[in-house]
């Protein structure tokens, strides 16, 4: 068999085996593309009026909550409420000047949480998530094979415009197999570059070996896997950083990280992640719309009581590349334009799966008729 025909059968086999899962990940990717923008729009009613008062400290605001939140988001806009996330499905909006709750978000957090679960591990239960993650990771790798082999299959031997326009432009008057073949080629040609970025970054996030390879390619040592600390081993003040604020004369760990984050010039939002079994108390100051090079992280060290600052410029080349990979997967690395391109590419991927499977079925029917 000729190399091009070998690539065709590899392409066809990968698409048939992984097509359904790729379709699910593509459709959910489109839905998740504008999650932050939709959430902000859906919760636009929770605004406050600044009467000249000084905002309360985060310690005083969180003292009214029975359960420690997972994250807290502050915004530089004086009319914005404090967003207190109690898990992935629930957000409570609080007046930063009085500490009074303004209400809870609609069903949007729960909806996007379920979509994300489907996107990452096919919506299976917690006990089966490793299996779901393994399936989506393998199918994402199969998608990489599809995107990598596609150009070699449909690229014409003669680069003349008469042949190129057949794979770059939609043609009228086609029907049946010729129509699906034209759609498949055109969508693949226009979406190949963003899809390569999306699937390659997905492979890096799915497999530790790919993540480590990214570091080693840049001459850096891969980071050690995160350690899960037990609640009994947490130093005083780390498990609930705002619970004993009245007992300390010095600022609490929570106020230390928030105060440090507010020193970042031009910050637009500050997201505080509460300490858990997977990480310490930290705050991220964002100066842009999600770009990794405009984010600065502040981490509280319970052993020394100091706050460590980690800016993008302080990362080694391996970590910078890994961070870009994370935000390139969602398109956030390119701002709203990058998100839009990623959403269009994901929509194109779903149509590629549809046209590809349709062509495969037609090929099978034709083969059976000939047999």
What tags apply to this protein structure?
8 strands; elongated; alpha+beta; 2 domains; 371 residues
Can you describe this structure?
It is elongated and about 80 Å long. Strands 4-3-2-1-5-6-7-8 form an 8-stranded antiparallel β-sheet, covered by helices on one side. The chain has 2 domains: 3-35 and 111-220 and 334-370; 47-105 and 229-315, no CATH class. The longest helix has 36 residues, at 335-370. A hairpin with a 6-residue loop joins strand 3 and strand 4 (101-104). The protein has 11 helices and 8 strands. With 371 residues, the protein is α+β, with helices and mostly antiparallel strands. Residues 228-239 and 243-248 have low confidence and may be disordered. 51% of the residues lie in helices and 10% in strands.
């Amino acid at each position: 068999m000729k190399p091009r025909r070998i690539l065709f059968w590899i392409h066809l086999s990968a698409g048939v085996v992984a097509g359904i899962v790729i379709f699910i990940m593509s459709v959910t990717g489109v839905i998740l593309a504008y999650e932050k923008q939709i959430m902000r729009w859906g919760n636009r009613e929770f605004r406050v009026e600044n009467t000249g008062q000084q905002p309360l400290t985060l310690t005083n605001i969180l003292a009214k909550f029975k359960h420690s939140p997972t994250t807290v988001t502050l915004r530089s806009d004086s009319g914005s409420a404090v967003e207190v996330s109690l898990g992935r499905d629930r957000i409570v909006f609080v007046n930063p000047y009085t500490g009074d709750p303004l209400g809870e978000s609609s069903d949007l957090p729960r909806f996007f949480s379920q979509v994300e679960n489907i996107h990452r591990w096919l919506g299976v239960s917690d006990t089966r998530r490793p299996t779901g993650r393994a399936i989506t990771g393998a199918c994402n790798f199969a998608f990489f094979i599809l995107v990598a082999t596609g150009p070699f299959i449909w690229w014409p031997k003669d680069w003349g415009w008469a042949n190129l326009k057949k794979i770059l432009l939609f043609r009228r008057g086609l029907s049946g197999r010729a129509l699906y073949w034209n759609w498949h080629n055109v969508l693949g040609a226009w979406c190949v570059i963003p899809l390569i970025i999306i699937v390659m970054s997905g492979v890096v996030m799915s497999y530790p070996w790919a993540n480590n390879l990214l570091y080693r390619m840049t001459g850096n040592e891969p980071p050690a896997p995160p350690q899960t600390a037990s609640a009994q081993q947490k130093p005083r003040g780390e498990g609930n950083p705002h619970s004993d604020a009245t007992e300390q004369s010095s600022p609490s760990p929570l106020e230390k990280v928030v105060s440090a984050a507010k020193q970042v010039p031009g910050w637009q939002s500050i997201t505080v992640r509460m300490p858990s079994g997977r990480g310490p108390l930290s705050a991220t100051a964002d100066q842009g719309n999600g770009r990794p090079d405009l984010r600065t992280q502040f981490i509280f060290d319970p052993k020394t009581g100091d706050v460590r600052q980690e800016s993008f410029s302080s990362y080694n080349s391996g970590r910078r590349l890994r961070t870009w990979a994370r935000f390139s997967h969602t398109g956030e690395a390119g701002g709203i334009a990058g998100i839009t391109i990623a959403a269009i590419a994901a929509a194109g991927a779903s149509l590629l799966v549809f046209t590809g499977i349709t062509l495969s079925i037609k090929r099978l029917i034709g083969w059976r008729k000939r047999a």
